[in-house]
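Per-record layout

source: Bifidobacterium polysaccharolyticum
name: L,D-transpeptidase
length: 534
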Amino acid sequence: MAMEEQEESRISDVDQAETVTMPPTMGNGPDPVDLFADEEAERAFGAGVSHKAPSSGHRGRTILALLLLAVLILMGCWFGVRAFFRDRVAPGVTLGGQVMMGRTKDQVKQIVDRQVRDSQVEIKGEGTSARAGLKDLGVSVDSDATVTKVMNAKGSAGLSRLNPFHSEAVPLVAERDQLTMDKYLTEHFIPRQDRSAPSTIVFDQGAHAFRAQEGRRGKAPELGRVQDAVSSLIDKPGRRLAVGMVYKDVAMPISLDTANKVASQANQRLAKDLVIKGADNDLMTIPAATVATWVKPVTDLDKGTMELGFDRQAINRYLDQELARQLNRDMVTAVNVKNTKGDVVAETTKGVDGVRVKDVSATADLVVKALEQGDTNPVQASAEITPHKEQTRVARYDVPDGDMWIQVNLSDQTATAYHGTTQVKTFPICSGKPADGRWSDTGTFFIYLRYPVQTMRGDGYVLPNITWVSYYNGDEGFHTANWNSTGIAKGDPALYGSHGCINMYEQDAKWVFDNAPIGTMVKVVGQAPSGSAR
C-alpha cells in the first residue's frame, strides 16, 4: 500500500509539472551541459557513466609540446633574421644620422657618395663668402673603405650585431691635407698681394726632379674653425655648416730649408725605379715619373713642419688598374712526348703556372711603406698560384718500324730519317754557318709549319720560290737550296753555311716534305765542323 501511494505521488508530480518546449541548440549558442560531470547526476545515474577529467601527465605533455614548438619558431626566426642581415647593414647602424639598417653594399655606396657631396662648409669672411666641399678643404674620402666600415659595423658576433638597442654611428674614412685647406682659404679670402705662403716642393718636368719653392710672410687664414667644421662633417656627413673666417699675420709658415730637405728625400725615391714582384721572376716596373705624382708632403702650418708623404689612394688606384694587367698569367698545360718505356723524349709545350694577383690594398700598403722608408728592394705582391697541368703523348721512337723522326748530325753534315729505331734514309746537308750567330741550334724540336713553295726573307736577303719548306725551330727548317749544291756536296758550313736552315738537294727536301708531317720530331746533335765534312 505504501508503494502504491508513493507511485501515485510521483505520477501526480509529473501531472502537475509545467511542460516546456526547448528550442534546438544552434552552433553559436552556449555549450551543452555535461550532466555526467555533476556529482549529483553521478549519484543518480551511477558512477560507471561519469566523464573522467584529463590526467596531469597528459596536460604536461601538451605544455611540453607547445614549448618545443615555440622554441622551434624562435630558432627559425633567429636564423632567418641572421641570414637576411648576412650581406646587409646591421640594425642600429647610422651614417650621418641616416638609418642604414638592411641596406645592401650598393645602396650604402650610393648613400656615402651622396652624403659626401652634401657635406659643405659655408665660410664667411671680410666682404666675401664661399661654399666649400670636403675635397676643396683637403679631405680625401675613401668611399670603398667607408662602405666596408658600415657593412662591418657592430662586428660579426650574432646576438650583439643584431641587437637593435645597441647602436653605432659610423664616420667617413678620410685623410686630410692641411696644405690644400690653407691654399683654398687663402685663394678665396686673402688678396694675392697680402698672402703669406709656405715654402713647398714642386716637380720640375724638365729636370725630372723635385725642387723647393720659397714662400713668404704675410696674411694667412686661421684654420681652427674650418678644421672643426670638417671634423664634424667627417663624423656626421651630409650636412651644411657655417663658420666665420679668422685671419692672422704670420711669418713664412714653412721655411725654405725645410722644403729643400723634403725635396731631397723625394728625389732619393726617384733615383731608382720602383719594382713589384709577382710569381717566379715576373716583375712590374713603375717609372719614376709615376712615383713623382704620388708624392704628397705632410705639413703642419702651425708648427712649421713638412715631412715626405705619399698619396695612398692614388697608389691604390694605379695598382688596381695595372697590377693584374701586368702580373696575371694564364696557366699553360705542359705537353710531354714519351717513348713506349715512359721516358720523356721531349717537352713540346712548356708548362706555365697560372697567376692571379689578390688583395691589391695590401700591396699598396707595402708600396707606401717601401717609399716612406726608402727601401729599394722589390715589393712582393700577393698572388694565387695555379700549378700547371701536364699532358703526355706517347711516341714509338724506341721500337722497330715505329714513328717517323729525323736526326740532324751537324758534325758529319747529314740528316737521317728513322721509323722508330729503323733507319730509313740518310741525306747530305749543309747547315747554318758557325759564325755571326747564324749556326743551327741543337736540341729536340718538332715540325710545326710547311710550305710547298715560299719566298724567304731575312737579314740582307730575299729568296723567291724556295720549295719543300719544313720549319721545326722558329725560322730554321729543311728546304731546297739549288744555289748551294757545292756546300751540300762537301758538307762545309764554314764556307757555304746558311742562316740556320738545313740546305738540301731538291729531291731530298721533297722526300722530307712528303714523309715528315707536322708534329714529326727533329733532333739536332753535334757541332758544325770548321771545314769540309766530306
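summary: Residues 277 and 283 are 5 Å apart (CA to CA). The chain has 15 helices and 31 strands.
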